[in-house]
Amino acid sequence: MTDPADLAARVREGELRLYELDDHADPETAAAARRHLVASETDANLEAVGDYTFAAADAEANVENLVGAAQVPMGVAGPVPVDGSAADGEYYLPLATTEGALVASVNRGLSAIRAAGGATARVTDSGMTRAPVFRVRGVAQAQQVAEWVREHTADLREAAESTTSHGELLDVDPYVVGDSVFLRFVYDTKDAMGMNMATIATREAADIVESETPADLVALSGNLCTDKKPAAINAVEGRGRTVSADVVLPREYVEETLKTTPEAMVEGNTRKNLVGSAKAASLGFNAHAANTVAAVFLATGQDAAQVVEGANAITTMEVRKRERDGDDETDAGGDLYASVSLASLEVGTVGGGTKLPTQSAALDVLGLAGGGDPPGANADALAEVIAVGALAGELSLVAAFTSRHLASAHAELGR
């Protein structure tokens, strides 16, 4: 068996590079050699980093120059009833985070939703995008390319779908900026998050555009997709899953358990999440939707960088009068209606990090590991459950600051 220390010495002497260790040893030994090298050169103790449960070979599709694993504490919140287009039943929500009080906060919100009989959630749109940018000589050629694309979408669909047995090209939208032409390809990627699928398919279609038009491909991603960056186009057109969740909380619960009122929560949401976000020119009009999205992403093996788009959410709240015999029941004062709408939640239940052991286990907790029946159903259900979790987080935080319990809650939990 090759000695990791000997391999580390060969890297230190310049005989090998870090990435070449996999060519000279099995994946576990190569990882041990990298830990030995890094520990010796930095005086860091990597014992905990090297204590992981998956086979090093299983992570080759997820990371390069493997040294081990970063362990993030995982908690669970729930259960909560969800009435969704794909999600149907009670769900425990796994949350991986280092932020104290987050799981407690989401769990409190889920308790409120459960007391109200559950939340409703719906995926209203779905489509993963990739938008290459092409060079032309001027706007006349740009118009020519855009018109050709509109007339030959079927040809582009045939080329794109030849690369995948699952993905479907839904649409191609041209955008012209001077001598640049952007083509925003939109795909149904079923239960996969689908970024790699969309990239490979778009490369094939881009070859057709180059061969049939004056356009020259400059970049396969022209940033109009838009991936892993704040973007208004995702807020308007969506990317991944566009999903909403809502609930009506009885006034009595808000007052007795959350220690506030529907009116106070509506005002707090309006002044903080809507007016404050507008003044800041934010793309997200919410309290902390990214907290729940990030924690579920880490737990279930999603692409963590896409939390940028996942936080693109709007929270709304209003007082709802109760209906009695067809009339509003004004003496009750009204209940709290709350919703959260996430425009671009990019999730999958197959591929990527979802295959790693702890991430796969978290999806098993949700009952959503692997492909759905019909295809896409599991990813839709995951999006709906995440939306309900985000709604729970919004309810809990807004209630905390309107009852002035936010600081005391963190202090009590020692965070």
Mean pLDDT comes to 93
Uncertain regions spanning at least 5 consecutive residues: 407-411
Output the structural class: alpha+beta
Portion in beta strands: 15-25%
CATH superfamily of the largest domain: 3-hydroxy-3-methylglutaryl-coenzyme A Reductase, Chain A, domain 2
CATH topology term of the largest domain = 3-hydroxy-3-methylglutaryl-coenzyme A Reductase, Chain A, domain 2
The span between the termini is 47 Å
Tally of helical runs = 14
CATH architecture annotation name of the largest domain: Alpha-Beta Complex
Can you tell me the number of structural domains? 3
Count the beta strands: 12
**Rough shape?**
globular
One letter per element, helices H and strands E, the order comes to HHEEHEEHHEEHEHEHHHHEEEEHHH
> Biggest sheet, in brief?
10 strands, mixed
Rg (CA only): 25 Å
- Relative helix content: 40-55%
Top-tier CATH class of the largest domain: Alpha Beta
Task: Describe the secondary structure blueprint for this structure.
Elements: H1 4-12, H2 27-42, E1 74-84, E2 88-96, H3 102-115, E3 119-130, E4 133-135, H4 139-151, H5 153-161, E5 168-177, E6 180-188, H6 195-212, E7 216-219, H7 232-237, E8 240-249, H8 251-256, H9 262-279, H10 289-300, H11 307-310, E9 313-320, E10 322-324, E11 327-329, E12 335-345, H12 357-366, H13 377-402, H14 406-412
Parallel strand pairs: 1-3
Antiparallel strand pairs: 1-2, 3-6, 3-8, 4-6, 4-7, 5-6, 8-12, 9-12, 10-11
Helix pairs in contact: 1-2, 3-13, 5-6, 9-13, 10-13
